[in-house]
Amino acid sequence: xxxxxxxxxxxxxxxxxxxxxxxxxxxxxxxxxxxxxxxxxxxxxxxxxxxxxxxxxxxxxxxxxxxxxxxxxxxxxxxxxxxxxxxxxxxxxxxxxxxxxxxxxxxxxxxxxxxxxxxxxxx
Amino acid sequence: xxxxxxxxxxxxxxxxxxxxxxxxxxxxxxxxxxxxxxxxxxxxxxxxxxxxxxxxxxxxxxxxxxxxxxxxxxxxxxxxxxxxxxxxxxxxxxxxxxxxxxxxxxxxxxxxxxxxxxxxxxxxxxxxxxxxxxxxxxxxxxxxxxxxxxxxxxxxxxxxxxxxxxxxxxxxxxxxxxxxxxxxxxxxxxxxxxxxxxxxxxxxxxxxxxxxxxxxxxxxxxxxxxxxxxxxxxxxxxxxxxxxxxxxxxxxxxxxxxxxxxxxxxxxxxxxxxxxxxxxxxxxxxxxxxxxxxxxxxxxxxxxxxxxxxxxxxxxxxxxxxxxxxxxxxxxxxxxxxxxxxxxxxxxxxxxxxxxxxxxxxxxxxxxxxxxxxxxxxxxxxxxxxxxxxxxxxxxxxxxxxxxxxxxxxxxxxxxxxxxxx
Lengths: 123, 422
Description:
The complex is a heterodimer of chains A (123) and B (422). Chain A is an alpha+beta fold.
């Protein structure tokens, strides 16, 4: 089986060819760096994406520049879990101040994924 | 009226302004940054997705994380940052430039400096710029404005979305709207290929099964009070196939149709602009036609990556510092965009130092070759690999390669793109 993928690891966007033989071995070509190899394998087995979102900041006025706090996952999240994780993030209300890198959710559902703040926000 | 005096004044506290100011401060100059928003960081603060900093920091950061690397340094420096402050004019008639500023916290303020760095960034093209016909209902936003509403202010611009233009901001917003619980019904692109990066097509459209209509033109926006739909038609063999037009129902239109350098202030101040880029014409010191006024980042030409903006801004800051120390442009060699090149920045080189040029191709080409001609004579060819209009090309030139220009009257270096010889 032959499958064409576009690598999303960096802005170069290499076109990767993944071929699977009858024994289930996967062969990857077209990658310009080793990370493309890992990406293609993961994309075939269990596709993942880094998740970025915002959570609500408590007690902010309309049009304030700090009504939402940007957050990110510390590692890529399996695509089929993103909706569930987003729903949880949208239910969070956070108090200021927050420091960059501060954990918002630790080890979400035992996946090893942390959600951290991606900026500092003062009171 | 408050009057303040600095060695250097930087206009804009985005990535370019912060990087330029930090360079000036490092060289020991008393520096001010004037910023119209309430905090430093610029557009990075609303770009909450990751993908920034691969070149600058060798890791993948979100926009706010990238910004904080610089705002952190700013806080630890002696740079004076004036937020909520707008520069309304630059008087560059004398050695001391005077900036007239309006500020919520300082009132009307006059700020004088011997060097000025323009770092105002760019703005989005909108519906008027590309002349989309139809009704004028509520619900039409530029993608960047929608990004600010969603990511910073916490409002959704609508629920059922159509995106016009396939620029990266539009693609990023397609994913963001989807992750925010909206439905994106399609992205409409007039060109036969998407204008955003391949990775963004994959992770922002394909992941969510959002249709991409390439070679499709927007016929009109429909809706009396609120947007009700967008009518589009395919372009076939160079002609609009109006008989195949169809309507995509939606309540919101986001436009991602390009960026233009923000130069109202420069224009008002009599600084000459380049007709192709819309940014100031620059010499080898990244200085505008006004002595002592420098420019860097997206105010000059729209860069692909913030990493390149920072790199250029550091050089502009260093040149401004050099200017304050008495350095002046040397023997300037004019640069001309030749075949298949849209523009080159800056517009001239100094034959006595190492120079860096940024430029854009007009065409998509594999195995492209850069050809450099000095006074009409081919002096160098360089393999450029795959080139396309959406990717900036960078070229470093040594002074030895240009030395011959000294013997010429009004020499011109022409850069063009050709095919590799068989």
